[in-house]
């Protein structure tokens, strides 16, 4: 029976309410799209300005750009703000104002549409409200599917990555449950006075079909909650798809044909995403689509990607695909599967290399599922020849790349903060800025074109901070970081205004930081007085940089990584009851340390005391003594001497403040790591933006914040 034309008491007909909802949703997507287009134009304009030699390209000058910058500053400050509730041993953080307002706005629109024009106290309106709520409920289905796909139309328009839209997908589903409950509740409350609910459920097939659909929705919302979703992700995805299929089926038979368009659109969106994913996966994984690489002998056989698995310290696996068939932009991730190790699983990992390396590299921390199997495989096969049956090289499949981020080259100053594997996200971005500096220094200038992104980088000042637990983690990227610093020093001879500062904070390996300090004072003393922003001769050869793992053969590497694993279980024999604060009873330095005045100053660590004074060395707990290198490995620095290595935790706020104080245009702060670090940095940026009254007449420039925490 058609109901859409029903108009209650001079109110618009039912079929108009879904259109009104989509007018509101479409307007929101439209505004976000305009902002995205503006950001793209701004990026091009800034890079063109730097190529034209204009000073301060990231600083808004005209009234239009100035008022935009003020508007953005106010919006960012408000939307990143969240209330923090400190308790005895931790801080609870409520969702940010930005996220909360988006969800509330959706809810308000839905509630207004459902109740508009009705007297909620009038019992004779209950059935009418129930019908209206039904129409409003079904109109939300396309939005939920629009926000779910990996090849996401909303993401494309608004410049947002699929994993960042996932929380909105979940909240829209919760709003759907709310309106579906109102729909059901108003019918039931209309029937209840006559004891008619049971009869309706028995005789009216529409009613029990609707009830099954509602129960399915309750299950979907419940099973998608964070802790439940994480128990067994693969099972979650499978049951999620089946539950949605059942929900859609029951909604279809519960609703009149005139609203089935709101069911066919989600079905179409689902298959659109799947087809695009399948095509992308085929292109990336079948070698016949890459004849050039086959001709060059870089690929053989049917499958395009072979990966090498190497075990590293801290239960981490390095996975490397040589000559990858697809390209990516720094900061993007791909879904990787290796069915011969873990069948039927696919996990997202950030690409830790840049396309210019000619390889796709991932650093994968072993959790309890598929990633643990990757690590075990890497350990078992470490050092075995490639020809062996149990070689560490395996055929893998990749899907992607996914993820998008405003290009960081366009900002005047950039601060990177990463914790442990978070560096897989920040290091490629740092290297991309270096690439931009190389393009600035290059004499061959590219002709500008509408279809070509301008080359070069606006960025002048880059601050890179990485928090690691021990030497083992630092070794993951020690060579890359050292190479970045050497290249930067070479570039300084041509580009006098650029500045790069790198600091590594080591939290659980005090002996290593002490050793590094001693080595610096003995070996690298001549370099240390040189201000890094002054043009210098390249430092090559001044100090031998090394990666212990890379210099060892396969078996030694395995032994080395085993040693690292036993290292972290070391306990203080002097005081066995001392409260250990690191994983596996290790003692970690929780003291926050300030920025060094010069790279050779390493602040002392007070193990296991937050913000406490430095401890007496004689009473200091032993920490990870086995990380001290053997005699023949001494006198070698692990990273470039001008990369500061400090013991303890950083103070993100003072690091960011310093960078902002010298900025000549808009700055970017990028953080990737544990949820606590990400939340703290978000809070610090809001406080600093407020403190400095960004774009409110003080001359303080805008701050763009990007956070990444490797989770949906
Ligand atoms: C965009 C993105 C980029 C990432 N990049 C990296 C990286 O560079 N290095 C790294 O070590 N880790 C990265 N991760 C995290 C990594 O994907 C998970 O740790 C990994 O999937 C866990 O697999 P598991 O089976 O061992 O996990 P389990 O031990 O089964 O679960 C651990 C956690 O991982 C989540 N998880 C499991 N499978 C998936 C999946 N297929 N998709 C999303 N989440 C999943 C679970 O919900 C759970 O919370 C990234 C995650 C995302 C979303």
From TrEMBL:
A GO BP annotation: iron ion transport
UniProt catalytic activity: 2 a Fe(II)-siderophore + NADP(+) + H(+) = 2 a Fe(III)-siderophore + NADPH
Record keyword Cell cycle present: no
Pfam families associated with the record: FAD_binding_8, Ferric_reduct, NAD_binding_6
PROSITE patterns for this protein: FAD_FR
Membrane topology reported for the UniProt record: Multi-pass membrane protein
Domain of life: Eukaryota
GO molecular function: ferric-chelate reductase (NADPH) activity
Gene Ontology cellular component list: plasma membrane
Domain FAD-binding FR-type: 299-408
Enzyme class, broadest EC rank: oxidoreductase
Keywords noted in UniProt: Cell membrane, Electron transport, Glycoprotein, Ion transport, Membrane, Oxidoreductase, Transmembrane, Transmembrane helix, Transport
Location(s), subcellular: Cell membrane
Ranges that cross the membrane: 20-38, 97-117, 129-148, 168-186, 206-223, 235-253
EC number: 1.16.1.9
Family of the protein in this entry: Belongs to the ferric reductase (FRE) family.
Protein name, entry field: ferric-chelate reductase (NADPH)
The organism's taxonomic lineage, starting at the top: Eukaryota, Fungi, Dikarya, Ascomycota, Pezizomycotina
């Amino acid at each position: 029976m058609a109901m859409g034309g029903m108009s209650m008491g001079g109110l618009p007909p039912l079929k108009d309410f879904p259109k009104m909802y989509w007018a509101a949703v479409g307007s929101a997507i439209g505004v976000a799209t305009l902002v995205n287009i503006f950001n793209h134009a701004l990026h091009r304009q800034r890079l063109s300005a730097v190529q034209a030699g204009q000073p301060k390209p990231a600083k808004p000058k005209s009234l239009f750009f100035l008022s935009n910058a003020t508007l953005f500053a106010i919006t960012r400050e408000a939307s990143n703000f969240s209330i923090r509730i400190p308790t005895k041993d931790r801080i609870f953080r409520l969702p940010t104002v930005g996220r909360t307002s988006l969800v509330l706005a959706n809810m308000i629109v839905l509630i207004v549409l459902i109740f508009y024009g009705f007297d909620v106290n009038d019992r004779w309106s209950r059935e009418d409200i129930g019908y209206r709520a039904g129409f409003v409920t079904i109109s939300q289905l396309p939005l939920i599917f629009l926000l779910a796909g990996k090849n996401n139309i909303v993401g494309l328009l608004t410049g947002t990555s699929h994993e960042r839209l996932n929380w909105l997908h979940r909240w829209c589903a919760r709003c759907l449950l709310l309106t579906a409950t109102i729909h059901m509740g108003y019918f039931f409350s209309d029937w209840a006075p006559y004891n008619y609910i049971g009869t309706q459920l028995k005789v009216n097939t529409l009613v029990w079909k609707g009830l099954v659909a509602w129960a399915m929705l309750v299950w979907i919302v419940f099973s998608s909650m964070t802790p439940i979703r994480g128990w067994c992700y693969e099972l979650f995805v499978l049951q999620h798809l089946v539950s949605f299929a059942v929900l859609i089926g029951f909604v279809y038979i519960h609703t009149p044909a005139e609203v089935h368009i709101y069911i066919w659109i989600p079905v179409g969106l689902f298959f659109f995403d799947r087809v695009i994913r399948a095509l992308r996966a085929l292109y990336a994984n079948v070698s016949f689509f890459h004849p050039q690489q086959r001709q060059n002998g870089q690929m053989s056989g049917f499958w395009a990607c072979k990966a090498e698995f190497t075990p590293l310290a801290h239960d981490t696996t390095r996975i490397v695909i040589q000559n990858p068939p697809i390209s990516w932009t720094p900061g993007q991730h791909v879904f990787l599967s290796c069915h011969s190790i873990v069948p039927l699983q696919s996990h997202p990992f950030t690409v830790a290399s840049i396309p210019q390396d000619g390889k796709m590299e991932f650093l994968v921390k072993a959790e309890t599922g598929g990633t643990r199997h990757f690590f075990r495989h890497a350990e078992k096969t470490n050092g075995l020849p490639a020809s062996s049956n149990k070689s560490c090289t395996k055929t893998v499949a990749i899907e992607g790349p996914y993820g998008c981020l405003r290009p960081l080259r366009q900002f005047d100053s950039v601060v990177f903060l990463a914790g442990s594997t978070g560096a897989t996200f920040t290091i490629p971005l740092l290297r991309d800025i270096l690439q931009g500096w190389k393009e600035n220094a290059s004499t061959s200038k590219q002709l500008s074109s509408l279809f070509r992104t301008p080359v070069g980088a606006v960025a002048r000042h880059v601050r890179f901070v990485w928090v690691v637990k021990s030497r083992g983690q630092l070794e993951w990227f020690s060579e890359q970081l050292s190479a970045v610093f050497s290249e930067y020093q070479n570039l300084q001879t041509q580009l006098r205004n650029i500045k790069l500062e790198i600091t590594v904070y080591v939290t659980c390996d005090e002996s290593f930081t002490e050793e590094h300090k001693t080595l610096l004072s003995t070996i690298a003393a001549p370099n240390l007085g040189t201000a890094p922003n002054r043009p210098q001769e390249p430092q090559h050869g001044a100090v031998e940089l090394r990666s212990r793992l890379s210099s060892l053969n396969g078996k030694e590497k395995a032994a080395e990584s085993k040693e690292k694993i036993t290292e972290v279980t070391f306990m203080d024999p002097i005081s066995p009851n001392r409260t250990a604060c690191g994983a596996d009873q290790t003692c970690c330095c929780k003291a926050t340390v300030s920025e060094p005045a010069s790279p050779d100053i390493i602040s002392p660590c007070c193990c296991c005391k937050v913000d406490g004074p430095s401890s007496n060395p004689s009473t200091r707990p032993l920490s990870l003594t086995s990380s001290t290198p053997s005699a023949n490995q001494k006198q070698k620095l692990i990273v470039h001497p001008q990369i500061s290595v400090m013991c303890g935790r950083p103070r993100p706020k003072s690091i960011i403040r310093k960078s902002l104080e010298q900025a000549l245009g808009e700055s970017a702060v990028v953080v990737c790591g544990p949820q606590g670090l990400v939340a703290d940095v978000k809070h610090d940026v809001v406080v600093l933006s407020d403190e400095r009254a960004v774009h409110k007449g003080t001359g303080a420039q805008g701050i763009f914040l990007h956070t990444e925490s490797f989770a949906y």
